[in-house]
C-alpha cells in the first residue's frame, strides 16, 4: 500500500510539473492580462498602416493564434518567424511594435508605399536574417541599431527617401551577403563596407569611399559621362558594361553570332577588344524586367559562386535594354554534345558522363544547401548543363531560378520549365522546392544514359513524360542495356548503369518527400566515380568552396575559337516576369 501511495504521489507531482511546463511555454507569449504579445504587435502594425487591398482583413485582435493569418509564417513552437507583405499597396507607417516579434527571421515589406522613419526597434530583433524594406517612401536616418543584427545576411533599404550618413555599425556588419542602400538621399563619406556584395549608387550627396580598398569598395562611385545612357548601378565583383561595348562585341547583335534563343531572349557570342570571348543574354522584352526586378536577378546570380555554376561576369542596364554577360563555354551544352552524330568516338564517353553528373550534382547542392539565400533552378536538363574547355560540368541558366524563403518552399504564379523535366507537384500546383530540381536531375541522368535520343518526342519510341514508365519496365525486366546511347557502342559498365538508373528512379519518384536530397545524390555519385577509378577533371575536388569561382574560359581568345561553330547551342530559357 505504501508503494502505491508513493507511486501516486510521484505521478501527481510529475503531472503538475508537466502542466507547469506547458503553462510556462504558453505564458511566454502572453502579457499579464493574457494577451498574446505577438498578436498585439501585429495588430499595432495593422493599425499604423492603410490597407487599400484588404490583405490584413483576417487579422483579429481576439485571435490567440496569428499563425493562420495571411502573410504570417510561424515556427513549430508557434512563434512568428516571417512576415511577407510584398507589393500589396500598403501605405502609412511601420509601427515600432514590430520590435516585439522577437523570433522573426524574415521581414519583407518591399514595393509598397510605406513612409515615415524606419523603427529603431527593428535592431532588437536578434534572430532576423533577411530584411527588405526597398521600394517604399521611408525617410529619415538609417537606424544605427540595425548594426546589432549579427545574424542578418540580406539587407535592402534601396529606393526610399532615407537621408543622413551610413551608420558605421551597419557598414561593419561582416555577415551580410548583400547590402543595398542605392537610390536614397544619403550624404557624407562612404565608410568601408564589410558586406560581400553591396550597392550605394544613386545617392547624389554621398562622398567618395573613405578607403580605396577595391576588394571592399566596388560600387557607389558615379559612372563616366560617356555611359550616361546606362543606369548608375553596380554590384561588388561584377563588371558593368555599356550598351555600346556590347554592340561592338557582338557586331551589333548580328544574327551570325546567335548561340541560342529562348522564349524570353537571345544569346549572342561576343568578343571584347582584348580578344576575350563571352556570351551575352539579351532579354527580348525589357518591360518584363523592371529596374528593381533586374537588380534582384543580378544580385541573386552574382552571389552564387561555385566552380560548377556558370559565373555571371557582368551586366548592362539601360532604359530600353537588359543584358547579362557570361563566360563563353567552348564545348557548348551537354545536350549539344549528346546530339552529335557521325563521330568515330563520342565527345562524351561513359566515364565523362558520370563525371558530368557528379559536377552538376555539386553545383545543385551548393544552390540548395550552401548558398545563402537558397536558390532553386527549376529547369535542370542537359541543355542547361554547360561544358568548359576541360568538359567539366557547369550548371547554367539561372534565369528561371527563384530565391527560397526561410521555410524552404516557394509557390510561384506560373509554372516555368521544360516539358518532360517538370516534377508532377510543380506541374499540378505550381509549388517548387529543392525536390523539384532533384526530379530534373533524375531526368538529366537518363539523358546522359540514353544520349537524349530516347527522350525525343515523335521519334516513334517514346513520348516525353513516358520515359519513366519505360525505364521502370526495363529495370524490372533487367534489360537496361536497351536504354544506353548507341553512340557508346557498348562501352559502358553494366553495374554502374544499374546504379545510375536506380538513382534516377529514386530522384523521379512522384512524391517529393520520397526523393533524396542533392547531398545524398552526391554521395552516391562520388562513390560510383571513386570506386570505379574514374579520373575527374583536374582540380574538381573540393568544389563546394563559396568563393572558388573560376573564370572558366574568359582567358580564351577570339583567335582560338572558330567563328562559325560546328554546333548550335540549344536555347537557354531566360526568366519571365517575377
Overview of the structural elements:
There is one protein chain. This protein is α/β, with parallel strands linked by helices. The protein has a domain at 37-222: Leucine-rich repeat, LRR (right-handed beta-alpha superhelix) (Alpha-Beta Horseshoe). It is 26% helix and 17% strand. The strands form 6 sheets. A 7-stranded mixed beta sheet has the order 1-4-6-8-10-12-14. A hairpin with a 2-residue loop joins strand 16 (258-262) and strand 17. The termini are far apart. Residues 13-34, 210-222, 224-236, 401-414, 457-462 and 537-578 have low confidence and may be disordered.
Task: Looking at this protein, list some descriptive labels.
globular, 578 residues, 26 strands, 12 helices, Leucine-rich repeat, LRR (right-handed beta-alpha superhelix), 26% helix, 7-stranded mixed sheet, alpha/beta
Summary of the model, kept short:
With 578 residues, the chain is of the alpha/beta class. Helices cover 26% and strands 17% of the residues. The chain has helices at 2-27, 37-48, 168-171, 243-249, 291-303, 334-339, 350-370, 424-429, 434-450, 467-476, 494-507, 518-531, and strands spanning 49-51, 72-74, 80-84, 90-93, 106-108, 113-116, 130-132, 137-140, 154-156, 161-164, 178-180, 185-190, 197-199, 205-209, 239-240, 258-262, 265-271, 277-283, 314-317, 322-327, 375-376, 385-387, 393-395, 402-403, 410-411, 431-432.
